[in-house]
Amino acid sequence: MRDIFEFLNAALPWIAMGLLLAIFFVSVTRRKKDKNRNEDYASEGMSIGMCFGVAVSTALHVNIGLGIMIGMVLGYIIGSIIEKTKES
Question: Which of 13, 21, 33, 75 is most buried by its number of CB atoms within 10 A?
Answer without folding.
Answer: 75
